[in-house]
Every structure is written in structure tokens, then in C-alpha cells.
Automatic annotation (TrEMBL):
Family matches, as PANTHER family: HTH-TYPE TRANSCRIPTIONAL REGULATOR RUTR, TRANSCRIPTIONAL REGULATORY PROTEIN
HTH tetR-type domain boundaries: 37-97
Protein name as it appears in the record: TetR/AcrR family transcriptional regulator
Pfam short name (any one): TetR_N
Species classification: Bacteria, Bacillati, Bacillota, Bacilli, Bacillales
Keywords assigned by UniProt, alphabetized: DNA-binding, Transcription, Transcription regulation
Originating organism: Paenibacillus dokdonensis
Amino acid sequence: MSHDDDLTPEEVAKILPPGAALGWGLAKPPQRGPKREMSIDLIVEKAIEIADKDGLASVSMNRIASALGFTAMSLYRYIPSKDDLLILMQDAACDISLPAERTPQEWRESMREYVLGTVDVFRKHPWYGDIPILGIPITPNNLRIVEWALRPLRDMPLNHYEKMSIVLLLSSYARMYGMLQRDIDRAVQAGSSEEEFSGLNYSAALRYLIKPDQFPDLHPIVMSGAYTGENEDENTVGNDLDFGLDRILDGIEQFLIQKTASDAQ
């Protein structure tokens, strides 16, 4: 039997990385520090402002301190390290408004909202995907997002492992597509165009270069215009995100059908 509930806040704080402990409000406030207004939230807010504008590489304790009118050392009294700051920035970026809970029958719509909402985080905060994944979510807002993803699975005939595997599948897809869309946004902001990013500007050159003997399977796709999205208006499949997500949801639906049939035997 687990006795984790018997832990004190101080013991929990020692288990977690300092940044996560700060996110849960488990760390003690500094005994000494600037007399003027200063807080963890203010530091994180300024760090996100800098990252949104100039990228993650531009975030440093020195720059944040300078922007706030303090010394870097005064910031370290609140947040022990740059790594801890990144944990807090990630968690703050996930502090988003969640849609109202849907009925169990609308589970596909619920999962779609989760994926699209996650993609939006990557687009709103392009630096978010630049922070490497170092482990499972353990901060409050990140876990709130996990809770959101678990909503439509609540009454499904799934065990805990299957539920978390589905959440991982959906979040991985959202992360992949969110980073792709983020890169498109960055390219356009840098002076490129969506047509150039998709290869539409190179359609004629590709039709010349892609020969059927060398690329027997790619050749007809290039010639049709599907490779660069030339005939997008005639495409009955829809956009890439929706098409891929629908296939994932179809797979989950089939798994549920098989699982229900197996349990009934």
C-alpha cells in the first residue's frame, strides 16, 4: 500500500525539480530580495514576452533582469536556474482556456478540440517546441492539459495504460503538426510564402525533374499537382491536419469496437 499521501509539502518539494516545485507553490519565498515589486509570475511573464518576440535563445536571466530593472542575482533568489525558468515558462504557456466538457457520444469532437488547442500553443508560443522533452508532465498546467485529454476517455472500456497510450498518440500528433505549422509561420514571417514552403513555386521544375523510371510512385503524384498542393480546391480529402487526425480517430474507434466485442465474449 502506498503512503504517498502522508508526504509533507516539504518532502514533495524535495522530490520534484525546483522549477516544478515552484510551479506548485511548494517552494519557500526568498527571505531576502528586492524591496520593489518582484515575483516568480512576473519573471516568467517577462521571459515569455522575450521568447515570443525574439526566440528562446534570447532568454537569459541577465536580459530578464535588465528588462525588469533588477540584477540577475536578484532573480536567482526566486528561480534557482535557467532550467527551472524553462519549466515554469512551459507550464505558463499551458495556462489556456479549456472548452466546456462534451457528452460521451461527442468523444471525437472532444479529442479534436484537444489536438487543435495543443497546436495553438505551439503557434502562439513558437519557442515552446524548442524546449526538449525531459520527462512526463509534472507541473500543474501541463497536468491540467493531460486531464483535458483524458476527459473523453473517462467512460470508455479502456484500462489505464490504454487511456494514457491514446493521450500520447494524440499529443504526439498535435506536437508534430504544431511544430510544422510553427515552422510555416516562421518562414512566412521571415519573408517566405506558404506557396514557397509547400513547394508550389517549384511545381514546374519538379515536373521536369521527376522522371517515371527513377521515381515510379512519386511521378504520378507530382504530375497531378498533389505533391505541392496545386489542385487543393479540387482535393476532397481536406487539409492535412484534419485528414491525419480523422484517420487516428478512426483507428481509436475501431479499437473501441474490437475491445467492446472482446469484453462481451
